[in-house]
Amino acid sequence: MATKRTPITKAGIATKLFVLDTNVLMHDPTSLYRFEEHDIYVPIMTLEELDNNKKGMTEVARNARQASRTMDEIVSGYMNGIEEGIPLEGPSKDLASGRLFLQTEAIAPNLPEGVPTAKADNQILAVVMFLSERFPGREVILVSKDINMRIKARALGLAAQDYFNDKVLEDSDLLYSGMRELPVDFWETHGREMESWKEGGRTYYKVKGPMCADLSINELVFQEGEKPLHAIVKQRTGPSAILETLIDYGHQKNNVWGIVARNREQNFALNLLMNPEVDFVSLLGQAGTGKTLLTLAAGLTQVLETKRYSEIIMTRVTVPVGEDIGFLPGTEEEKMAPWMGALEDNLDVLNGGVDDGGGYGGEWGRAATRDLIRTRIKVKSLNFMRGRTFINKFLIIDEAQNLTPKQMKTLITRAGPGTKVICLGNIAQIDTPYLTEGSSGLTYVVDRFKGWPHSGHITLQRGERSRLADHAADIL
């Protein structure tokens, strides 16, 4: 092992040696290139576990095969002196500048008594312990997604950490909310050279000042008080920005399929949902904030009234909260029906609203409207999305917090010309066992789409379901 050398970075700091657990490679096959200038070490037991998990069509099996292929590409091009470490600059296209070390010698499991040495996790811990003793002047760290593995490593006095590269944010509280309150002195500091004009029933303000550099395109800004302002950032160039006033969907004359906004965030959401220039919308919020209801109301209006889209397509991840109820009979739509209770509940509200407000002829009119709506809403399973293209559709992805970034990319790239994609979710209600608030696909797209002129995001904060639901969300 040539790790006896103490590699030095440009800053003069000794690089670390990261020992990879199998679950890191099965979670992210490209993790071999994610450690920058540091070296990585792959124990033989990690390779054995990759081999044991490579069969099948699951995401884990696919990742195991991809990790093996990546390692094969690295190793096959560097056959001489493999124990000296394989440089990663070439294979990673300069993403990583460290070296890859493979276990090339037998390592005796020098573990405390009572720790079973036959277990794969403990053999990896023995390798970490061996490397720590061999290179006392170098930081040797185990990287594992397994919490118990990290606890055992620390109990043995070894350094261990989670794999953080897939996390968009360390703290979900720092996630972009999509809106910003303007300070009280905003017009004094930004309105000296202000230009104002009207166009298409909207008022535009061109402002200049220090705050403009922090604004994002399509960020919603507001100021309450005697002269309240609700606007969206349309352009931003250096120290200046153009603000466009919003349509007030809180007024009954601007109702969307009988629905009016009950608070400021709902009004912001409807402005994004009804804007044809915005192709991608993400709505975050706890239960009862109106995400699904607002989205369906906007979808029905633009499909049945303005004919902007041909139909609504709704999909969601089928992750059960409790025990699974087993296989479901019927067609694709019938199998998805039990997962679409939220769709049924909101359609009942929207049907009632249309009938009460529009007088469609009592029960007959309501039934006819319901049948018409049914023909324009399709429920699809995520399992059959790959390879499809949706043209001129209103695509709703519900419970998007349970999607991985890769699944989210697969879904959003289904959008063809004229299609609008809406992601709904609550990152505090993740049911998938391997996702966290920081690594959820919903967090990923909110962060990556921030500032794109054809996307918008809003975090709904006030629950409008009932006083019981609001109180339960706060105290439970």
UniProtKB/TrEMBL annotation:
Pfam families: PhoH (PF02562), PIN_4 (PF13638)
Annotated Gene3D superfamilies: 5'-nuclease, P-loop containing nucleotide triphosphate hydrolases
UniProt entry keywords in alphabetical sequence: ATP-binding, Nucleotide-binding
InterPro entries in UniProt: P-loop_NTPase (IPR027417), PhoH (IPR003714), PhoH2-like (IPR051451), PIN-like_dom_sf (IPR029060), PIN_dom (IPR002716)
ATP-binding as UniProt keyword: yes
CDD domains: PIN_VapC_PhoHL-ATPase
Record-annotated PIN domain positions: 16-151
PANTHER family: PIN DOMAIN-CONTAINING PROTEIN, PROTEIN PHOH
Family, per entry: Belongs to the PhoH family. In the N-terminal section; belongs to the PINc/VapC protein family.
Protein name: PhoH family protein
Native species: Viridibacterium curvum
Lineage per the UniProt record: Bacteria, Pseudomonadati, Pseudomonadota, Betaproteobacteria, Rhodocyclales
